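User: Second chain of the day. Same drill as before.
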Amino acid sequence: MSGAKAVVVGAGPAGMMAALTAAEQGISVTLVEKNKAPGKKLAITGKGRCNVTSACDRERFFEQIPRNPKFLYTAYANFDNQDTIRFFEDLGVPLKTERGERVFPQSDRAADICDALVKACRKSGVRFVRGEAASVAVEDGAVTGLLLKDKTTLPAEAVVLATGGLSYPVTGSTGDGYRMAEQLGHTLTPPWPSLVPLVTEESWPGETMGLSLRNVKLTLWQEGRKKPLYEEQGELLFTHFGLSGPLVLSASTRLPRELGRHTVSIDLKPALTPEQLDARLLRDFEEYHNRDFLNALDKLLPRKLIPVVVALSGIPPHRKVHSITREERRALVALLKGLQLTVKNRRPIEEAIVTAGGIPVREVEAKTMQSRLVRGLYFAGELLDLDALTGGFNLQIAWSTGRLAGKSLAAALQSQGEEQP
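Assistant: Same format as last time:
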């Protein structure tokens, strides 16, 4: 089937996986990328370390996908996280599993993942072309090629759009795939930022800017709901605008597109029950019984956070701790177990790690990643209305959907070739 041609647009994780998979099946593949080098966004993921996937079980994997998880069932069954781990280790990139079942290259270099993919693509015959896609050419409801902005036409019987979303636009994710899909009749679930820091109505986080808290519990509440939208223990960061860090980024994925009213509650001492925390306070207050309240919390809280907690407690900062009442102490315990902040907004989509929204999954065949509207048009990765929490889940979506798109288009083109006389 050497005459069959496919074009993949976007040399990110999903695009390179799709191109490599199709090329391994004997398809002639051209991979179009507008950046100077492939994998620009991949090279900066995980703070340059690349959280390749998660080593979790299937049930936990799908729990981390807030929107349209069922759409991924076939793609994940075809190429799951264990397949991803074997895939990269077979390419010569040894991996390791860290806290939270996060999988990284042993070298802690995202570039090793990117380089291995590029090398594998080239070895399989994938042709890399630097260019900017303008539109997908279609005749009689079927793909015939890709038109570049410099007027070059790349003939093809299949095109995979894997151009990413709108997050990190400096890496090339500028919504090109949305535009090309809409030209062909696809609709668009309006994109919004996911895995993004949150802006709070309260200004006090700015007073603690740069303070990172580990082993705290964050709970996200939506007004009118009895159950929390998100609850997890981990790390967060106070910023000049509000909150960031792994816990906050993951919590942001649970927020609906139209925000409404949401609050965040931070348990500063999740390992202690209220009774245990009260006993701990009593011990500290007995030790510092002649100190001012402001100077009696050093063993309990980071220095930057003390003035904030004191102000929020309502206890005068220069009150001697031996005169603090039981009721005041219990109110302080409640504050430490539930520091409240109101979500005002998300940070802009340019600051998001991934994009929520995109091509509606109802317009794509889950078993093949092919468009339901245009024969020979496939989608993979962040372009789809799929996103997940932090921990390697979004990259696994890219690997799984890219693998299935490449496999499906190869099977379809081979089938067409066998039907021709």
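The chain has a mean pLDDT of 95.

User: Great, on to the next one.
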